Structure formats: structure tokens, C-alpha cells
Amino acid sequence: MAERRGLWIGTYTPGSVPAGSGAGIHRVLLDTGTGELSGGDPAAAVEGASFLAAHPRGGLLYAVSELDAGRVTGFAVDGARAPAEAGSAPTGGGSPCHVAVHPAGRHIITANYADGSVGVHRLDAAGVPGTPQVLTHSGSGPVADRQERPHAHSTAVAPGGAHLLIADLGTDELRCHAFDPRAPEPAGPASTAARLAPGTGPRHMAVHPSGHIFVAGELDARVHVLRWDPATATAAAVAAVPAGAEAGDHPSEIALSDDGARLYVANRGSDTIAAFAVADGGADLRPLGHVPAGGAWPRHFTLIGDLVVVAAQHDGVLAVLRVDPHSGVPADTGHRLAVPDPACVLAAW
């Protein structure tokens, strides 16, 4: 049944790093029947709102500010009403590019790209983030202009829920911390869950119910499949496939369909969305096809039912694709909406 769904769009702003022309968080409506987009007006002024996350219990929205001195801000949200700022905190590092809410709902986790640190913020009763426990790292990789030091790009909860994973683009690692949300400092000592091939540049992750982890390599343009071992808190590489149409692509977002049967990856460069069938119980990926993303530099996308809403950063538009239920491959609906420098799409109300 068709409905109008609300979306929050995070954008780069004049004061962010990099700079953009957005206003922070913008508000958009999506018609799930036609794929038509409307709105796009600013909803909350946040510098460099490059990544957003919603609390699993609803009513709370979080946005990083991608600045030299990073911050994360919490907002109270109620349907389509403008988000009301609840409070903010430093992220403990520079240029935060990702925020996630831990499933237990007691913490948010921010990834600081500039120095590779990660902030674990306890939430107070109103959902306001506090001063973080800061997780640091050292190391480098072979790509001189991108891997001169650690660059934390995203976090995810490992299969089983007992560990926090950090995709470090700078060191070609999945870093790992045991995580106890009841503890005063929930993240335990650091370990290495996986070392990927030099020059991989792990960016974002998708965790499959089978216990496999799919990792988008921003620098090697491949999707890496790893099998998680909860007994050792390590992940072994079992497969890798090209992420898209061109070897020089720079994959960005990676996401599973609701049933876990298909995986989608956005590729900047060829500006495509690639579709894969999840095979062998999660241990392999079978390419289904890749299609134009609807705009230049697809930095992020979200799946809403059979729709893919893409943030094409360099064209300043949102584009909507619809997944064919039989082939699993998206096709362009033709619907576009101008939003300046979009960086993140989050399904809202």
C-alpha cells in the first residue's frame, strides 16, 4: 500500500570540511507508490551534517558535524515537525563522518575520519550524548594520500552483539572492541578482527544474519566477504568481488535488503548502484547488475521497501530507483529532487 514517508537528509554546509551549500538537516517526503519526492526544505541548522542516525525507540535523531573539531548533536523528533535540539558533545576527534546508535539504546558511536579515533557516548535520560570514551589507534597503509594514518570511517555491531567493529580506511583493518553497554566504559581493549589486503580502504559494512560481514573497499573497489568467529572475535576473509562497473570506482554505502537476500553498493566514479544476490548462506556474492545511480557521486542511499533513495552529492539531487522484484536490479523511476550537497538519507516518519 502506497504511503508518504518522511526522510531526513544530511548535507554539507558552508562551514563544514568539506564545505557545501546545504543548511544541515533537510526534510523530504517520499511517495512510496510513485517514487515521487517533494519538500527538501531545511529542518534543522547543523554544520556539516554528513551522517545521521535514529534511535531504535524513536523520538531521537543524531547528526555528526564534520568539522576539524567534531561534534555530534541530538534532536527530539516528532513526525514531520522540525527537530528540536536536545544537546551536543565533542566527538573526541576531527571530521566525524559516521554515527550509529548501539542496539541497546544507551550509547551512540561516532567515527572520526581525520585522526581515526572513535567516540562512544553515553546517552542521558533525555537522549543527550555525553563526553565520549575515545578509542584511538595507530598504523598506516600503502596509499600515501589516503592511508598516512588511521581513518575510522564507520562502525557496526558484530554478529552476536558482543563486539564493536570499526572500519579503518587508513590501516586496512576491522578494529574490534568487546562492548558491554552496562559498563561505565563500555568498550573494552582493542584487538584486530581482520586485516584486509593492503590498499583495500574499508569504508562501510553490512552485517548479515548468517554471521557474515560485507565490507565496501573504497580504495580497491571491491566488496569483501568475511566470516565472523565469535569465539575468537575475528573475521576471516572468504570471498571478494568487484563492487561495480569500473576498477577505479570508489564505493560508498553498502546495504542489505530487509530479507538479507540481496546486497546493494553505491559506486562513485561510474556513478552506479550495483546489485548482488547473497549466495552460499552469506559466504559469497553473485553479481546481478549495475545501473546508473541517478546523479553524480552517489555518496549514500537508503532502502525503503522496493525503493532506493540515492544522495547524489555532486549533482545536488536525490534520485529514486525501484528494485525489480524478480531480478533484484534497480531501475530509475525518473524522480529527482534538488537538495544541496546531500550526504546522507535517513528514513524518518
From TrEMBL:
Task: Say which family it is in.
Answer: Belongs to the cycloisomerase 2 family.
Give the PANTHER family listed for this entry: 6-PHOSPHOGLUCONOLACTONASE, 6-PHOSPHOGLUCONOLACTONASE-RELATED
- The name on file for this protein is Lactonase family protein
Native species: Nocardiopsis mangrovi
